[in-house]
Each structure stands twice: as structure tokens, then as C-alpha cells.
């Protein structure tokens, strides 16, 4: 086994798997001048698929500072909004991604979703406060609804309200 392979295995076993998720089945995106990108010639880049991005955000959420948690939760809601017409594709990406993940990471992801999207919490309120649409900022309830719908549709996760 090469030293690179050993390092990779050591990183996976030590919990670095949240970053690995982003490398699973990336989407290819073409950047062209015609589409408004400042490139001399067309380029194709790889980006994390939206399911991988959302899973990674939720896996690291409990470890982040509170101000970063709110931003991350808002980015998850924004990702659901951007892909609202393509949530079936996000779900397909999740189903493929889930098969590659360690069982513990899947459980952590699902537990984090169920706890952080169960009710309007301080985290949800902070995320709503930092939303960038000053003309129509989302209420915490609307932000939570967007998260719940996204997780239900794309990940088949429907968090119950706490206490029910």
C-alpha cells in the first residue's frame, strides 16, 4: 500500500470523511464567455453535486462556531431553493452518495437534520437574520419550511417537531 493510500485511510478513519463527501460524483460544469464567465476559452470544472454539498454542510454543522452554523444552514436552504425544480436529481445524487458513505456518517447526517430542522430554534432565527434579501427576508418559519421541504423531497427526511 502506498503512503498516499495509508494517509487516505487514516484520514477516513479519523473523521475526515465529511470533506471526502464533496469529492463523490462531482458535476461537470462548462464555463464560457458567452455565459458571462471571464474566461479566454471554454473550461470545464468539477463542482460538488448539491446532495454532497448539503450532506457535508450538515455533517460539519455541529462542530462549527454559531455564526458559521447559521451561514451554513442558510446556504443549505439556498441550495434547496436553487435546485427547487431539480430536487429529483438531488435525490438521485443522494441515493448514489449514501451508498458510498460510512454508516456512521449517514446516521450523523440524519440525526443533525432531525435535530436542527425540527423547530424554529436560535440557529434557524440566526440564519433568517443573515439572509441577503433585505427586500423580503425570510421569516424563521419560512426558512424552516424551505429546509423541511428540501430534506423531505431530496433526502426523504421529515423531521418531526420536538415534543411530538
Short description:
This protein is mostly helical and 164 residues long. Helix content is 59%, strand content 6%. It is built from eight helices and two strands, in the order ααββαααααα.
Describe the SSE topology:
Blueprint: H1 3-13, H2 17-21, E1 27-31, E2 43-47, H3 50-60, H4 66-82, H5 87-100, H6 103-116, H7 122-129, H8 140-155
Antiparallel strand pairs: 1-2
Task: Name the descriptors.
164 residues, two-stranded antiparallel ribbon, 8 helices, disordered N terminus, globular, mainly alpha
Q: Give the % helix.
A: 55-70%
Radius of gyration: 17 Å
Distance between the termini: 51 Å
Overall, the morphology is globular
Order of helices and strands: HHEEHHHHHH
Quote the average pLDDT. Answer: 86
Percentage of residues in DSSP E strands: 5-15%
Give the uncertain stretches in residue-range form: 1-16
Number of helices: 8
What would you note in describing this structure?
The chain has a domain at 49-155. 59% of the residues lie in helices and 6% in strands. It is built from eight helices and two strands. It has a two-stranded antiparallel ribbon. Helix 3 runs antiparallel to helix 4 (66-82) and helix 4 packs across helix 7.
Amino acid at each position: 500500500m502506498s503512503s498516499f493510500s495509508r494517509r487516505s485511510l487514516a484520514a477516513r478513519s479519523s473523521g475526515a470523511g465529511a470533506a471526502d463527501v464533496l469529492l463523490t460524483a462531482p458535476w461537470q460544469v462548462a464555463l464560457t464567455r458567452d455565459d458571462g464567465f471571464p474566461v479566454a476559452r471554454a473550461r470545464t470544472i468539477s463542482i460538488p453535486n448539491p446532495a454532497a454539498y448539503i450532506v457535508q454542510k450538515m455533517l460539519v454543522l455541529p462542530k462549527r462556531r454559531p455564526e458559521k452554523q447559521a451561514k451554513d444552514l442558510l446556504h443549505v436552504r439556498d441550495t434547496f431553493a436553487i435546485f427547487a425544480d431539480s430536487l429529483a436529481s438531488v435525490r438521485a445524487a443522494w441515493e448514489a452518495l449514501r451508498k458510498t458513505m460510512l454508516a456512521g456518517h449517514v446516521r450523523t447526517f440524519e440525526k443533525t437534520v432531525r435535530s436542527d430542522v425540527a423547530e424554529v430554534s436560535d440557529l434557524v432565527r440566526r440564519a433568517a437574520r443573515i439572509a441577503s434579501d433585505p427586500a423580503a427576508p425570510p421569516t424563521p418559519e419560512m426558512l424552516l419550511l424551505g429546509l423541511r421541504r428540501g430534506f423531505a423531497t431530496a433526502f426523504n427526511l421529515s423531521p418531526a417537531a420536538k415534543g411530538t
